[in-house]
């Protein structure tokens, strides 16, 4: 999959609202203990990763069942398990860009091990027009497949050389999406690619590869659980309270206005290319987008599953009611506009920004950017430098 980055892309027609100071109070007048906000956030993060682990373990089990007995029924069950696993992992993207263990510090490679994209299919397996491509078909360079080998190859020679993680599993299960968006079909890899004497060479290595990457997925999620239940949780809760809050604000602002709005939506729309989708093999990008936004909502409102407590929203409302009202309006608008985009996403982008469906994507992009930008105004409101 190609990666074309427009990190500084300008989204037109973004409307910004001003914030009145009439209801602004001094940050020192907060009655909410800021430590309760950061503590609730730490609990929320852990709960989300634990939920992702449950679903990843179910995916690993489904893949193990398929590898042991590669039938069409078991193949479809593995694909369904992958789709379910994305439902719990998707909101956790809101913990990125927060100087936390997912993408910084001693575990900075973990995000790349879990959710790296875009993925160049030819790095892993055969592609249309090249039956001998990829690690799976190169038993000379890679006579043995193992966790160590595949982890070492991830990103080797370029960030698009993704060897492991959710999207590597996705490609192995769905294969390339070679159909036109109008056909409304995901990748059509046959289960017989994994059957001895089936439709593609090296079926045994393909089964082995799939089992290894499924095992690695749970290994790397466990790192996140260990960090947020132990060492990093201690570090995070010991941070200056404003530094911890700033990390939280920066994280969801960056995801909303840049990573999600621009990299994951606008780039694909401008290029009118399904190859730029986040989950292009399974046509699950529409869920990725909605789940990433739900993660932003979760962090802002301090709620996930059974976890609920003092939040960024509560703090902001207490010091600047007008700003809190604007943010809630912008966040609700972003959710509404994102929900209005077409499923599947490749059909929404195929005719570009001037089409009816493309305009809906552009409107959603603008709404996400507007919320992310406005959220940064919470820093001075809360007395955060």
Strand order of the largest sheet: 1-2
Relative helix content: 55-70%
- The strand count comes to 2
Mean pLDDT equals: 93
Radius of gyration: 22 Å
Q: Which class of secondary structure composition applies to the elements?
A: mainly alpha
- Number of folding domains? 1
3D architecture notes:
This protein has 385 residues and is an all-alpha fold. It has one domain (27-381): A middle domain of Talin 1 (Up-down Bundle). Helices cover 56% and strands 1% of the residues. The chain contains 14 helices and two strands; from the N terminus they run αααααααααββααααα. β1 (303-304) and β2 form a beta hairpin. α1 packs antiparallel against α2, α2 packs antiparallel against α5 (166-174) and α10 (312-319) crosses α11 (321-339). The radius of gyration is 22 Å and the shape is globular. 44% of the residues are buried. The model is unreliable at 1-24 (pLDDT under 50).
């Amino acid at each position: 999959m190609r990666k074309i980055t427009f990190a500084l892309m300008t989204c037109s027609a973004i409307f910004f609202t001003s914030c009145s100071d009439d209801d602004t109070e001094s940050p020192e007048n907060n009655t909410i203990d800021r430590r309760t906000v950061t503590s609730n956030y730490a609990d929320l993060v852990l709960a989300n990763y634990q939920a992702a682990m449950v679903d990843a373990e179910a995916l690993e089990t489904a893949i193990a069942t398929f590898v042991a007995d590669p039938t069409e029924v078991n193949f479809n069950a593995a694909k369904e398990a992958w789709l379910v696993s994305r439902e719990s992992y998707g909101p956790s993207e809101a913990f990125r860009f927060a100087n936390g263990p997912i993408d910084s510090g001693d575990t900075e490679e973990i995000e790349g091990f879990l959710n790296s994209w875009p993925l160049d299919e030819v790095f892993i397996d055969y592609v249309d027009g090249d039956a001998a491509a990829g690690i799976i078909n190169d038993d000379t360079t890679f006579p043995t497949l193992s966790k160590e080998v595949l982890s070492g190859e991830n990103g080797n020679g370029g960030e698009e050389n993704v060897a492991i993680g959710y999207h590597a599993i996705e490609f192995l299960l769905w294969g390339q999406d070679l159909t036109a968006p109008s056909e409304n079909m995901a990748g059509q890899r046959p289960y017989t690619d994994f059957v001895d004497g089936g439709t593609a060479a090296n079926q045994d290595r393909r089964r082995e590869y799939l089992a290894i990457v499924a095992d690695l997925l749970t290994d790397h999620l466990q790192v996140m659980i260990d960090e947020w239940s132990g060492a990093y949780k201690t570090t995070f809760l010991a941070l200056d309270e404003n530094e911890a809050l700033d990390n939280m604000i920066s994280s969801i602002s960056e995801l909303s206005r840049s990573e999600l709005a621009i990299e994951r939506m606008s780039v694909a729309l401008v290029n009118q290319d399904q190859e730029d989708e986040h989950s292009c093999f399974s046509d699950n990008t529409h869920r990725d987008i909605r789940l990433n936004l739900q993660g932003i909502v979760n962090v802002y409102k301090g709620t996930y599953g059974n976890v609920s407590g003092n939040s960024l929203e509560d703090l902001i409302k207490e010091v600047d009611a007008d700003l809190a009202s604007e943010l809630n309006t912008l966040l609700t608008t972003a959710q509404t506009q994102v929900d209005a985009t077409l499923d599947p996403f490749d059909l929404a982008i195929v005719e570009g920004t001037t089409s009816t469906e493309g305009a809906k994507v552009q409107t959603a992009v603008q709404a996400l950017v507007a919320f992310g930008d406005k959220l940064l105004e919470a820093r001075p409101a809360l007395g955060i430098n």
